[in-house]
UniProtKB/TrEMBL annotation:
GO biological process, one term: response to cadmium ion
Start and end residues of each HTH arsR-type domain: 1-93
Organism from which the protein derives: Paraburkholderia elongata
SUPFAM superfamilies: Winged helix' DNA-binding domain
Pfam families: HTH_20
InterPro entries according to UniProt: ArsR-like_HTH, HTH_ArsR_DNA-bd_dom, HTH_Metal-responsive_Reg, WH-like_DNA-bd_sf, WH_DNA-bd_sf
Source organism phylogeny: Bacteria, Pseudomonadati, Pseudomonadota, Betaproteobacteria, Burkholderiales
Annotated signal peptide: none
GO MF term set: cadmium ion sensor activity; DNA binding; DNA-binding transcription factor activity; lead ion binding
Protein name: Helix-turn-helix domain-containing protein
Length: 234
């Protein structure tokens, strides 16, 4: 990759309005230009200009539905770059101890493109490692073990999915608030889908935060050994 391409992409991401738009889209959902303008605190005209640059730069894709256009990240690779950039530098005590409830919610559990992140995402990953369901497998990769495949099948996750045959089926994603890895890739996405389908978790309609439900806490305790009291005391 040439230096020019790196500098061009870095310039696109570095602009404050565009960075807010990109982070807002980092849970994988598509949003309208007006919603992104509101999130970034700019006018519709200003938002349109920034969105055009992000499209030209290959960071966003757009789809039309009737008269409306909806924008989303161009792929998981863009979300990965955003999370990696956010993980550079220390997490300050001000962030970890912030009284802001939205910030606390994001740190506790959130969507990182298509998989679970935050304290709960890291706790799920650590539990799977401790129980031998995944193992470290090279640089920035996990791998499912035979017991892990059997366990997931017992939970009702389709292990015939060809995505699990990919070398990067369980990528390590550095969590920018916890400074530890959580599981990403197809395995992370399938787990997130399952947590939502089972009613264990609910996505916020307006932010990237995720709420763990009462049945979810029961499931996390039973299958991962994750206790609500320990998580909320952290």
């Amino acid at each position: 990759m040439g230096q020019h391409n790196i500098s061009s992409v870095a310039h696109l991401i570095a602009e404050p309005v565009r960075s807010v738009m990109l982070i807002t889209l980092a849970d994988g959902r598509a949003m309208s230009a007006s919603a992104l303008a509101e999130a970034a605190g700019v006018t519709a005209q200003t938002a349109s200009s920034h969105l055009a640059k992000l499209l030209d730069g290959g960071l966003l894709s757009v789809e039309s539905k009737g008269r409306h256009r909806y924008y989303r990240l161009a792929g998981a690779h863009v979300s990965h770059v955003l999370e990696s950039l956010a993980s550079i530098g220390p997490v300050t005590p001000a962030w970890r101890n912030t009284p802001s409830r939205p910030a606390q919610a994001l740190r506790f559990a959130r969507c990182c493109y298509d998989h679970l992140a935050g304290q709960i995402g890291v706790a799920v990953t650590q539990s799977m490692l401790t129980r031998g369901f995944i193992v470290e497998a090279g640089e920035r990769q996990y791998a499912l073990t035979a017991p892990g495949c059997e366990w997931l099948q017992q939970l009702g996750i389709d292990m015939g999915d060809p995505a699990f045959d990919q070398a990067d089926h369980a990528r390590q994603c550095l969590d920018w608030t916890e400074r530890q890895y959580h599981v990403a890739g197809p395995l992370g996405a399938r787990l997130m889908d399952a947590f939502l389908a089972w009613g264990w978790m609910r996505r916020s309609p307006t932010t990237r935060s995720v709420t763990v439900t009462a049945p979810g806490w029961e499931g996390l305790k039973e299958h991962f050994g994750i206790a609500r009291e320990a998580c909320e005391a952290d």
